[in-house]
Design a protein that fits this description.
The protein is mostly beta strands. It contains four helices and 42 strands. Helix 1 crosses helix 3 (about 175-185). The two termini are about 55 Å apart. Residues about 1-20 and about 520-525 have low confidence and may be disordered.
Length: about 600
Amino acid sequence: MKSIFYTLCAFCWCTVAFGQEYKVDTLYKAGPLNNRINVIILGDGFTKQEMPKFSEEARKFADFFRGFEPFNRYRNYFNFFAIGTPSKESGITNPGTATDAYPDQPVGAKDTFLGVSFGAYIHKLLLMTKYDAFGELMATHFPMYDLIVVLANTTYVGGSGGNMAIYTLQAQSNRVGIHEVGHTLGKLSDEYWFVARESANMTTNDNPATIKWKNWLDYPPIGIYKYGSGDGGDYWHKPSPGECIMEFVEKEFCAVCREEMIERILELVNPIDQVEPENAGIIRVDGETHFKLTLVKPDPSTLQIEWRLNGNLIANGVDVVTLDKAKTPDLSTLTATVFDSTKSSRRNSIRHLRTKTVSWSLRSQTPALFKVVMSRDKICAGDSVTIDAYGCAGALSWSTGETSPTISVMPAESHTSYAYCKVDGQPTVTIATPITVLPLPAAVASNDGPYLVGATVKLSAQGGDRYEWSGPRNFSANTANASIPDAGFNNAGIYKVKVTGENGCSKTAQTEVKVDPILSTSTNPEEWLRVSPNPAEDCVFVETVLPGKSLVVIYDQSGRKVISKSFTSKTNIPFRLPAGLYLYRFTNGSRASSGRILVR
C-alpha cells in the first residue's frame, strides 16, 4: 500500500516538531503500517490542560469506529493513533458571518494549533486554516497516514469531510464523525441537497438498467430517489429514501454506501500480510516443504484461498500447504490466490481487483518434462509478459530468436509466441504461448474552468469504471466527477486521473485547473460597465459600451454558479434568489471585472 515503513514497538512515542514535543499514542495497532489503513486522530482547540479530554474523545471515536458496520468486520484492517497538539486557547474560531450562524454562539477568533473554524458563508461547514502546521506535523510525526480525523473542541454542531474528516463534540459526535469519514474515506456524497457531484451514491442517471447501484435495486429500501425539487434536486438521484447515515446521522450506511466503503478498504489493504518461505528466489523442495500465508481476515472471514501447482488445483480454504519432493516436478510454480468473497459488494465486474496472488518458483530435481510458464496470459496494452521454459534436455530456442530460458515480450496486439526444444535424434517439441492484449480505456479528463477565487472547481473524467484523482494540496478522489469548493490559488495546477476500465486496464489523463483572482483587469471599469440596481430584489440590469459578446456570471457565497448569461450591449436578468450577498463576474474579450450584488 505504501513505500515507507516504520516499526512501532512501544505503546506510544514522542518526536519533535516546531521545537515542541507531541506524543503519538497507539490506540489500536492491528498490523504493519504499510499494509493497514492508518487512522490518525488529531484535536484542535484543546489546551494543554485539556489533553486528557482529547485523549478520552479520541479513544471513544476509535472504539465507536471499530464497532460500526462495516468497519466492525474489517477492524483488523485498521490502525488507530492519536497525536495530542495543545492549542493556546480553548475552543475554535467562529467568524459569525454566515446567514445560518447560531445566534447564541460567541463570535471571535481562537489561537489554535490547526486553526479550525466555522464557515464564513456556511456556518456548519468546518474548515482548517493552518495547513502548513498540519503538513509539517504529519511529515515529521506520521507521514504514512491514510485517514485524518480532527476533533474540534466545541459542542456547537459542525463538520466537514474531504481531505480529512472534521467534527465537533456535539450530542451525536461519533456518528457525525462516521458521516464525515464517509466523505473522506469513501468519497460519498451527502444524501441531502448540498454539493452536487457524481459519486457512488449520487448520480444524474435514473435508468435502472445502467444506474451505478443497479445490482442493489432488488434489496429494499434501495431504489432511485430524487434529491428534492428545485435547485437542481430534480436532476440528481440517491439510493436511499432517508435510510442512510449520509443523510441522517442516526442511521447506518445503506447497502450502496457500505459497498463503496468495503471496496475502498479492500483497495488499500492486501489480505496477504506475509508469506513463508519468502518468494524472492528459487525455493528447493527437499523432503516435505511447508508453504504458509499469514492473512488479514475479516470477522467472520470471507476469504477464499486456492493453491495451484503448475496451474493445477491442489488445495483450497487453507493457509498452509505441504509439498513432497517426490510428487513435485522440477522447475515448478506454486501459486496461492486469495479473494474476498464478501456479499456486501455486488461489483462482479471488479472481482480481479479483490484477487491477490503470490507465487513461488520451485526446484526438486525430480525429472521434469519440457514446459513453459507465463507470468500471465492476459495483459494490458503497453505491459510485458515474462515467459520461462523449463525441462528442455537439449537446445532451447524461441520464435523471437532468443535462446535464454527466460524471455520478456511486449506485444502490441494479441499474439502467440513459440518455444522450441531440440534434442538430438528426436523430433523438435513446440509449445505455443498465446497472449491476449487488452485495450486501454479511452481516458479523458477535463474541467469547466477557468475559475474565480472562491468558486467550486469541477473535475470530470470519462472512459472507465473506476477513477483515482490526484492533484495539488494532496487532493484525491475516486469518482468520475469530483469537486473542490471555495477554490484558492493553491488549488490551481495539473490534476491527474487514473482511469480503469472493466477489463482492469488503466490509463492516466490530466487536466489543468486555472484559478483567477476576483479582480478587474481595468482600473476604472465604471467607464465601460454598469450593473444596477444594487441592492436588487428580483432582477439586475447589466450594460456595457464594449463591442461584441459579453458574459456575466453570478455566484453565491459558496462559489456556486447560480446564473450565467451571454449578451451584446445590455441585458436584463430576472431571478428568484434568496436574500444575501452574491458575486458577479463580467468578461468581454480581454476585459474583465467583478463585484458584489446585495439581494434583499
